[in-house]
C-alpha cells in the first residue's frame, strides 16, 4: 500500500536528474520523501524531524549532489543513521547481583504480554534455565488461565493465586516461592493498562518496589501509531523500563514505533515477537528493522519466512543466505524456494520483500499471476538433475528437449536461464555489499533482474 | 452530543468522561488552541499538519485536509480563524460521512439468527468488543448467543465464557485447539433451534499477512451459510485505536478475504485519537459503525462522524455521552 522510500527517492531523483545538475533544494525535496517514508512507517513526528535533519546534514556534506546515484547515497545515509538510533548491537538481558533474575513485563492491553511471558520462559529454558511464570494479571477475564495453559504447553511452572490477591502480594509470594525451589528466572506477567491510569501505574511501581526486578520489559505492538512515544515515555518515567519487546513483527507493519521509542526513551529493543507459536521470539537486529522502516526489502526475513514453511532438516537460514550470496545458488534451490513461496501467500506480497522489486511490481502488476510459477516449475522439472545444478551445460539441443518436455518455447527456456544467471550474479553482489555493510548499487534501479515478471 | 438511545448514566460513564477529559488535554485541544491563535499563516498550516499526523490521520489524508482548507481559505479570502476551524471540522466530518453512506441497512428477520462475525489482528480487543456488542443488542431486547470461534489462543474460550456468565448469554464452545468450523456450525444450529435473535461469532486474532489463516475466515463464512444463506449479515473488523498506518493495510487485507461490512474502533479510552479512521474511510470507504471506549460491557457506542470529530479533534463533548 505504501511505496517504499527507495522507489520514491528514485522517482524524485529521476525527475530532478533531467535538469542536469542537482541543487540543495533538490536535496530538500529528497528529504521530504525521507520524512514521508518515516511518517508512513509510524515514526513519531518529532523523531522523524530530528532524524531528517541529521540525514540532511550528512547528505549535503557527502556530496550527494555530485553522486551518480544520489538516491542510493541518501538511502545509505538514512540506513546508517537508523541503525545508529536503533542501537548497533544486540542487547542481552541483564544479570542480577544475586539470583533469582526477576523479569517483569508491562504494557498496554493487547500488546502481547502474556504470550511473550510464555515465549520468554521457553527461550530462557532453552538456555538451560529453570523459569517460573507468575500470573499477576488479576483483571482481564481468564488471563490467569491463559498463562496456566501456556505454562502447561511448554512444561514451565506457573505461580498463581487466582484473582483475589493483589498483584503486589502475588509477585512477592512468587519470588519467595522461586527462591525456595531454586527456580530462576522469575517472569511476572502484569495486566495490560493505559499509561494514563494512575492507580494501575502506581500498582506497577509498588510491584517494582517490592520485588526489585532485574529487568522491566515494555511490551509494545509493532503496529502502534504515533501514540507509541507517549505510551513508552509514561511507562518509562513512571516505572522505569530496561528493555523493549516489539511484538507482532510477523505482520507487515513497518515498525516505526520502535524507532520512536528508542529515540525518545533510549530504552534498548531486546527481542522481537514474530509469530503466535511459543518459539517465535528472536533477538533484535537493528539493521533488519532499519531496512524494514525504509521499505528496502529484507532478504534475510524472506529466507526465514521460507524457512518457516519448510519441514524437517532444512538448512539454517544464515548458512543458506551465505551460500546464496556467494552465488552458489542452483536451479534446485530456486525451484524449492518457489514451491515454498507458493505456500507462503500471494506472489505480490512475497515479492515486496525482495529489494527493489516494489517499483517494477507496480508497473507490471497486471501481468503478475501465480501461473508464472507453473511455467517455471514445468521448465525446471523437465531438466535433468545435472542440468539443474550446472545450467551452463544446457546447449541448443538440451534447450529444445526441455522446451518440448515442459510444453514451453525454447525462448522461454533461454529467458529463464538468462534470468537465473542474473539472479545468481545479483545474489553474489548483495553478498559482497552485505559484508561491507553497504547497499548494492543495483537495488536502486528498481528491478530484480532474476524474476520473470 | 448525546446518543439518547444509549444513555445509561452509571459509574463506568463517569470514568469514561474522566479518561476523555485527559484525552482532550492532548493533541486535540492543541488543534483548538492553534485556531484560537488567530493567524492563518505558513506556520499555522505546518503545525496543523503536524497535529493531524500526530493523531495517526496519516500523511496522505493530512496533506489533503490541510491543502483543501488552505485552498478554501485563500479563494474565499477568509481571515477569521473561527471560520477556518469550521471548514476543517466540516471537511473531517464529510470524510467520515462519505464512508457511512456505504453502511448497509440490516434487517433482523424473525426466526433467522442475525449473525455477526468479529475479526481482527491479535490483541485489538475482539473478545471484549464482542461482550459489548452482546450488551448492545440486549439493550434492544434481543436474545443473544456467543460462539467461541477462537480455539487457538490459550484461554480465549474461558474469557468469552466469563463474559457470557456476566451478561447471562449462552456461549457455544468446543475444545481449545479444536476446529473453529465445527464450533461455528454447532453455534449456527443452536442459534437456529433456540430462536436466537443475534449470534456473535468470535474468531482467533490473525495477522492479515497470514494467508492460510485469512483463508480460514472465508471457510467459516461458507459454514455459516449452510444454515443461514446470507450469513454473516454483519462482519465487523475491530481496529485498535492506537494502531498507526498499518490499520489501513489491515482493513484492506481483511476486506479481501471476507467482506467487511463494518469497522469497530476499540480502545478509544486512552490518549489515542483513532486518526486511522480517516485513512480507512477515505481509502477504502468501509463504514466505521461502532466505537469502544473501556473495559466494561456498556462501553460501546454507535459511531457518529460529528461526535467523533468534535470530541476527539476539537475537544468538545464526550464520545459516548454528554
Describe the structure.
The complex is a heterodimer of chains A (453) and B (322). Chain A has 453 residues and is α/β, with parallel strands linked by helices. Chain A folds into three domains: 5-86, Four Helix Bundle (Hemerythrin (Met), subunit A) (Up-down Bundle); 102-290, P-loop containing nucleotide triphosphate hydrolases (Rossmann fold), CATH 3.40.50; 299-445, 434 Repressor (Amino-terminal Domain) (Orthogonal Bundle). Chain A contains 20 helices and eight strands. The radius of gyration of chain A is 25 Å and the shape is globular. Chain B has 322 residues and is an alpha/beta fold. Chain B contains twelve helices and eight strands. In chain B, strands 3-2-4-1-5-6-7-8 form an eight-stranded mixed sheet, sandwiched between helices. In chain B, helix 2 (27-36) runs antiparallel to helix 3 (42-54). The radius of gyration of chain B is 21 Å and the shape is elongated. The chains are: A alpha/beta (453), B alpha/beta (322). Chains A and B meet through helix 2, helix 6 and helix 9 of A and helix 3, helix 7 and helix 10 of B.
Notable features of this structure?
heterodimer; A: 8-stranded mixed sheet; 20 helices; 8% strand; globular; disordered C terminus; B: alpha/beta
Report a brief summary of the structure.
The complex is a heterodimer of chains A (453) and B (322). By secondary structure, chain A is an alpha/beta fold. Chain A has 20 helices and eight strands.
Radius of gyration of chain A: 25 Å
User: What fold name goes in the CATH topology slot of the largest domain in chain A?
Assistant: Rossmann fold
Number of strands of chain B: 8
Terminus-to-terminus distance of chain B: 6 Å
What is the tally of helical segments of chain B? 12
Q: Which consecutive residue ranges of chain A, at least 5 long each, have pLDDT under 50?
A: 437-453
β-strand number of chain A: 8
Classification by helices and strands of chain B:
alpha/beta
Q: Name the CATH superfamily assignment of the largest domain in chain A.
A: P-loop containing nucleotide triphosphate hydrolases
Order of H and E elements of chain B: HHHHHEHEHEHEHEHEHEEH
Second-tier CATH architecture of the largest domain in chain A: 3-Layer(aba) Sandwich
Helix content of chain A: 55-70%
Shape of chain A: globular
What is the succession of H and E elements of chain A?
Answer: HHHHEHEHEHEHEHEHEEHHHHHHHHHH
What's the mean pLDDT score of chain B? 87
Number of domains of chain A: 3
